[in-house]
Amino acid sequence: MARIIRIAAAQVGAIHRKDTRRDTLSRLIRLLEDAVSKGAQVVLFPECTFTTFFPRHLFTDEAELDSFFEHGDITTADTTHGIFDKAKELGVDMCIGFAEATDDDEHYNACVYYHAKMGSILSKYRKIHLPGDVEPFPEPDAVNQLEKRYFKPGNLGFKAFRVPDLTDATADSGEPIFGMMICNDRRWAESWRCLGLQGVEVVLTGYNTPGWAPQMWGSSGDQDPKEAREEAIFHHKLVMKAHSYTNACFSVSAARCGLDDGKYDLVGGSTIIGPNGKIIAESKTEEDEIIIADCDLDLCSPGKKRTFDFGRHRRVEHYSILTSQTGVIEPPRLSKISSKSEVRNRDVHITGFTPIKSVSGTAITKTIRILLCNPNATEFMTNACLEMLKPTLPADVSVYGFTAPKPAPSAIEGNFDNIMSAAAAARAIVPIANGYDAFLVACYSDHALIKMLREELNQPIIGIMEASLLAARTLGGRFGIIATSRRSKFTLEDSVKHYGLDSFCAGVKDCDLGVLELESKPEKEVLAIMGDVGKKLVEDGADVLTLGCAGMTSMKAAIEEAVGADVQVVDGVMAGVHHLAGLCRMGMKMAKKGMYQSSAAQRKIRAQDWY
Ligand code: CDT
């Protein structure tokens, strides 16, 4: 069954500063009625629809500035409820932009999607890319865009949402997926991709785009106003078409346009564009006008499933620069002449004060790929480690989860498990090792896999026990280890001695639990036992506790609560990843002169390279 929605954009012509809100609201309601008479199910209105586009003015009178903002619930407020009531009465959904003043006196350039059948707001968006300036241009006749002065950048992200009741549900697809952005957001590929990554099918964008405004556009004051307007519309359509295509979605844009106050021009060019990037409907005037089109959402599928099948084609390991850097950092110049910014950045010496020298990093160019090697065959433990790591990772570090294949045992509780799991894991890891910069062995022990990999590979390798103890030595005077089973207490005590750290160890105490019982027993019970063990270790002098099993990773917060803020709790998985990332940044490799020489060549000579 086709998923077709009839969508309209209500383009709104000039709104002058002296126009009353009542008259403007009546115009908007007339447009809504007009769209519904043409069969619209959804109507998009422009950015800041209820008044003239006030951010072009500098206000000295606070009360006057405040009069352009909407306060309280927009669906019931005196100045705005009329259009929401009408939408409900007509059964038409509506997206409308407005200047929002919140109860705690924050100000946003916002829009809402109002769902007629529910009679309430389904989704709200606050403009993220605020254009323009805080201060007006010095030229008295310049056209200003003081959005940075009057609004805070939006804090709701680019959130796609499902809209019920527009199309029949099908087995293949759920309710239509909509997303909203406001004016300047549409020029940023980032806005679209955030929505695209949520499967957006229709993007709604209201806008106020000036035509001739040379200071604002940074163009020549000599430019012919007609040319300037054509160029503004060209750029508007360019981004709407390009991003509809690259995200395989429909887009609808509604202009606030015309000549406000006989002086400030805003361009028209409202459009409805298909997922192939072609315009389906566009406005012909710069006045109040409805454009409308039937949008068959199934037309998004070819793009989403082939050319822009994000899951198959995106290569996020090369995109970290997108979220770690805002401004441009050019490659260093090849010529000797210093650029202006290099001259500016040289240390400034203030008389009588020796500046503190500082250095900071440049652009991140290469992602550090760490393979988290779980030598047991229990995948949920690997996944739990990745989940816990995620919020701690900088953009240039990616951690990949490896779970040992059988015959690795599902838990490592003794020497037999240790050796069997090391062999199974090493066989699988060595052939793929080239793809990673470092390896973390996620078993809290002096696991055999650590030394196997240290011999065979050049990249840095550490186990979570050793990593946790290195961190513990840095952070405190005595550490205590919360172990799982009785037996692991003894092996961990031996390992502490092996690492030469027994004089810093306040104790190893076990919870009398099997590794898999950490998951299978009721969480409350496990946390209570671990909390008690942690407290006993602290009584014995530990000021840092380490979690003696990769399966304890998710329990860190509960132990911290049990022992209080003066005691540090180290998770070896987290400590290991960040330790390795540091070594990678330093460009370090395994030393091959001594005990970690590879025996691969000798095996080969013996014709024993069969593993
Ligand atoms: N309202 C709004 O965001 N207008 C901007 C003006 C350009 S800022 C250089 C726009 O992107 O159309």
Automatic annotation (TrEMBL):
<protein>
    <submittedName>
        <fullName>Carbon-nitrogen hydrolase</fullName>
    </submittedName>
</protein>
<feature type="domain" description="CN hydrolase">
    <location>
        <begin position="5"/>
        <end position="297"/>
    </location>
</feature>
<keyword id="KW-0378">Hydrolase</keyword>
<dbReference type="InterPro" id="IPR015942">
    <property type="entry name" value="Asp/Glu/hydantoin_racemase"/>
</dbReference>
<dbReference type="InterPro" id="IPR003010">
    <property type="entry name" value="C-N_Hydrolase"/>
</dbReference>
<dbReference type="GO" id="GO:0047661">
    <property type="term" value="F:amino-acid racemase activity"/>
</dbReference>
<dbReference type="InterPro" id="IPR053714">
    <property type="entry name" value="Iso_Racemase_Enz_sf"/>
</dbReference>
<comment type="similarity">
    <text>Belongs to the HyuE racemase family.</text>
</comment>
<dbReference type="GO" id="GO:0016787">
    <property type="term" value="F:hydrolase activity"/>
</dbReference>
<dbReference type="InterPro" id="IPR052186">
    <property type="entry name" value="Hydantoin_racemase-like"/>
</dbReference>
<dbReference type="Pfam" id="PF00795">
    <property type="entry name" value="CN_hydrolase"/>
</dbReference>
<dbReference type="Pfam" id="PF01177">
    <property type="entry name" value="Asp_Glu_race"/>
</dbReference>
<dbReference type="InterPro" id="IPR036526">
    <property type="entry name" value="C-N_Hydrolase_sf"/>
</dbReference>
